[in-house]
Structures are given as structure tokens and as C-alpha cells.
Design goal:
Elements lengths: L1 H10 L14 H138 L2 H22 L1
Helix pairs in contact: 2-3
């Protein structure tokens, strides 16, 4: 340290300076100041600054490289997941189309089944209606026949009662009762 202060003191004895003081000429003093500052920095900071700066730059470089590597890995995983998602989407779209087609065909099948079932039901109802009409016609005809027969029988009995004697009357009644019973068995 003593050497440094001695060099400043010796500057005051230069014959060109004349006296010790500040030199305000920037062009003359700038190279001197820069050389002193650079000398001090190189002398005292040689090992420390270059090593620190190198380490800092190396660490920064490693962090940047790690970040780039991580980003690339994440991008790769994201692309892979995107491809998987697209594949799943295509599969789901295909299944949806199949369900849609199957659903439409199922709806058409159900519609045809319903129409066929309705036609069968209408056919059965028509058959039941016709059978009921035929049954009612037969029943009505039988009732009319029975009434006509009953009235004819009563008229015949009335005529016979007025024309016949007792013995003939009893034989005729017996014969008619036998015929009536036979007819009743046929109609039942």
C-alpha cells in the first residue's frame, strides 16, 4: 500500500505539472484513470471475478439448458397426450356414429314392429267383431224361431183344443210335447 501512496506523492514533483492539484483536462486524464482502474481490477479481482463470472455463466447456461430439456420433455409428453386424445376422440366419434346408425335402425325396427303389431291387433279386433256379429245374428235368429215356433204351437194347440175330444186331445198333446222336447235338444 505504501508503494501506491508514494506513486501519488511523486506525481506532485513532476516538472510538467508545476504544482499538485486537479487536472481538469478530460482527454489527458482519462487514459490514466482507466489504466489505474483496470490495473486495480486485474490485480485484485483477477482470480475472484473471472472465476465467479465463469461459474455464474456456467450455472446460468446449465439452468437454461435444463429448462430447455424440461420444456422439450413436456412438449413431447403434451404431443403424446394430444395424439392419444385425438385417437380416443376418433374412437368415440366412430362409436357415436355406430350408436347413431344402430339407434336409427333400431327405431325403424321398433316402428315396423309397432305397425305390424297394430295391424295384427286391428285384424284380431275385426275378427272378434265379425264373430260377435255372427253370434248375435244366430242368437237373434234362434230367438225369432223359438217365438214363431211357440206362437205356431200355441195356435195349433188352440185349434186342436177347439176341434178335438178329450182322448184325441191328450194323444196330440203327448205327441207335441215329445216333438217339442226333441226340437229343444236339437237347438241346445
Amino acid at each position: 500500500m505504501k508503494n501506491v501512496t508514494d506513486s501519488f506523492v511523486s506525481l506532485g514533483y513532476w516538472p510538467s505539472a508545476g504544482s499538485f492539484g486537479f487536472n481538469t483536462d478530460i482527454l489527458a486524464t482519462n487514459p490514466i484513470n482507466l489504466s489505474v482502474v483496470l490495473g486495480v481490477l486485474i490485480f485484485f479481482g483477477k482470480g475472484v471475478c473471472v472465476g465467479c463470472l465463469s461459474d455464474l455463466l456456467d450455472n446460468r447456461k446449465q439452468r437454461i439448458l435444463n429448462t430447455i430439456r424440461n420444456s422439450e420433455e413436456l412438449r413431447g409428453r403434451a404431443v403424446e397426450q394430444l395424439e392419444k386424445a385425438r385417437a380416443r376422440l376418433r374412437k368415440v366419434e366412430i362409436e357415436a356414429d355406430q350408436f347413431r346408425v344402430n339407434g336409427y335402425s333400431e327405431i325403424e325396427r321398433e316402428k315396423l314392429n309397432l305397425i305390424n303389431s297394430t295391424y295384427k291387433t286391428l285384424e284380431q279386433l275385426e275378427n272378434y267383431k265379425n264373430e260377435t256379429i255372427h253370434f248375435e245374428q244366430q242368437r237373434s235368429l234362434n230367438q225369432v224361431r223359438q217365438r214363431v215356433f211357440k206362437q205356431a204351437l200355441q195356435g195349433a194347440l188352440g185349434t186342436l183344443n177347439s176341434c178335438l175330444n178329450n182322448e184325441l186331445h191328450l194323444r196330440t198333446i203327448s205327441a207335441n210335447i215329445g216333438m217339442f222336447g226333441a226340437m229343444k235338444e236339437i237347438t241346445d
